[in-house]
UniProtKB/TrEMBL annotation:
Organism listed in the record: Virgisporangium aurantiacum
Superkingdom per UniProt: Bacteria
Name of this protein: PAS domain S-box-containing protein/diguanylate cyclase (GGDEF) domain-containing protein
Stretches assigned to the EAL domain: 24-276
Length: 280
């Protein structure tokens, strides 16, 4: 460790740590302001049926248009927003904007919204979802909430989380497990959960064209998901070979640059109302 390597090392180590902490504090302050200043935008990426290319829905992805840094990707600020609790406010903005956009699309096109664990655990989340849907005039079955395995497997509040998921599910909202396969990967717990679909993480999709054993693994995961009556959306499909192999693995839905990159709300509306919904 740094300590055993002499005094100079320790100082440099502390200096970088200091810079990192400062940078996080600055980002935190800027994030707080960004919500007030309206610096966030949503982009929408089509989720398509792999065989026909028909668009079934869009995933809403947040972008921060920082006045001096340019577009900040979510991985650079979602974690900070989670830690500081700002995710609750930001998440409400994302949810409300996403359902408002979806209300413009022809049914049954759905919108999928990422929900971080802290946001889900915040008091009143179920009520917020219901109010957001009512305010936008969107049917509950046109909303998919993407949660992560960690929410289901954390040791706190399990009964409350379970009953809130049940309430959302009964109201018609669908639940997806995001980044599926990267977490605990225990399929047994999914059996008793009100979950409708899983999103197979891009890291799996990336390996199927080069590794037969990874492809077998992916086929196994998809097969197991189907046994549990879960639909599968594969993430990060970039090539025609990926698409063909996933169809061969009985995967129904997919998302990725092969079909479309995330796009502005106006473009998503054009995409889904014009022949765009049939394009691949
Ligand atoms: P995610 O939910 O797994 O979203 C998929 C990510 O993969 C998106 O990155 C998307 O742009 C990217 N992607 C899609 N297709 C391809 C492809 O073919 N190739 C490659 N290389 N990438 C592809 P993005 O938008 O940077 O989002 C990253 C993560 O940030 C998301 O992962 C999600 O966990 C989080 N995130 C984004 N928006 C929100 C939000 O509104 N709320 C919360 N809580 N998290 C969000
Ligand atoms: Mg997602
Ligand atoms: Mg994902
Ligand atoms: Mg991912």
């Amino acid at each position: 460790m740094a300590k055993t390597s002499g005094k100079g090392r320790v100082c440099r180590y502390e200096a970088t740590l200091h810079t990192r902490i400062l940078e996080r504090l600055q980002l935190h302050a800027a994030l707080d302001q960004a919500i007030t200043n309206g610096e966030f935008r949503l982009v929408f990426q089509p989720v398509v049926a792999l065989d026909t290319g028909r668009t079934c829905g869009f995933e809403a992805l947040v972008r921060w248009l920082h006045p001096s840094r340019g577009t900040v990707p979510p991985l650079d600020f979602i974690g900070i927003a989670e830690e500081s609790g700002l995710i609750v406010q930001l998440g409400e903005w994302v949810l409300r904007s996403a359902v408002a956009a979806a209300a413009q699309w022809p049914g049954p096109t759905y919108v999928a919204v990422n929900v971080s664990p802290r946001q889900f655990r915040a008091p009143g989340f179920v009520g917020l979802v219901q109010r957001a849907l009512a305010d936008a005039g969107l049917a509950a079955d046109r909303l998919v909430l993407e949660i992560t395995e960690s929410l289901l497997l954390g040791d706190r509040d399990q009964d409350r989380i379970r009953s809130e998921l049940d309430a959302l599910h009964r109201s018609g909202v669908r639940i997806a497990i995001d980044d599926f396969g990267t977490g605990y990967s225990s399929l047994s717990y999914l059996h008793q959960m009100p979950v409708d679909l899983v999103k197979l993480d891009k890291s799996f999709v990336d390996t199927i064209t080069t590794s037969p054993s990874q492809y077998d693994l992916v086929k196994g995961i998809i097969g197991l998901a189907h046994t549990l009556r879960l639909a599968v959306v594969a993430e990060g499909i970039e090539t025609e070979d990926d698409r063909k192999l996933l169809i061969g693995a009985a995967c129904e839905f997919g998302q990725g640059f092969l079909f479309a990159r995330p796009m502005a709300a106006a473009d998503a509306l054009t995409w889904v109302t014009a022949a765009g919904s049939l394009r691949r």
